[in-house]
Predict the 3D structure of the following.
Amino acid sequence: MAKESCDICGSAFNLGFVESHHIVPPDITRRAMLPESRTAKLCHNCQAELSRWYRTRISDIVFDEEYMRFRQRSDPELVKEYEKEYEKFVEYKRKWMTRQ
């Protein structure tokens, strides 16, 4: 069986256990009428950590300072937010791993 490694932490695992993770959830890219988002091969630990990272940092509600009220984020805004947070997570994990 072929071995591959996690795109974030580099841990090796069997091909049968690869978790292909969409950087931006497919339902958001569909609503934004964009092509499917890029994917990353993640180990179970990184997949779980990234899901928690998204839940704590991404909200579909944002405060609009121009109108001084909360509003729903548009789908293109959410796409950018998911992409930005994924890059932040990768940077965080790589810094954390070099300290170990």
